[in-house]
Amino acid sequence: MEFFDKLTKKASETYKGAAEKTGKLAREAKLKIKINENKSKINDIYEEIGKKVYQKHTSNEDICIKKDLEDECGKIDVLSAEIEEYHKEILELSNEKACVNCGEHMGLDAKFCPKCGKEQPEIKEEPAKEVEVINENVSEESSSEECNEESKEECNTEEGNTEESNNRE
Fold it and tell me: CB–CB of 53/63 below 8 Å?
């Protein structure tokens, strides 16, 4: 019997590990899709900028980047920042970091970049902060789930009173 218990435990651990890895891979794939979508949007904006510049050229007008292209450049800045955040999230999912000099991916514990040799700063992890979660709106479902066998009748009575008072209003 002990053999089957160990086998069941090992199978359960393996399943959990595989499920976690699959979840990470799925999240990484979604992030890569978002990166490609943003790159496509950036290319569309580049095209619009090119059209505006060419229209100004054909009409012999001066091109003022501040006035004529500021909105498009701002959109590119926002999309580029999003892409950078997605890359950081992918690194976190992969338990890697990027070189501060060349951007090469490496393990979190690497002290030097394997590509350029630049010394990497140590990652300082901040301790987790305790926070108190206050939920003022407790639904009837969650309050009935909190009932245990011993106080089931008390909970049902309280819920019944709550429903009666709600019906009166």
Answer: yes
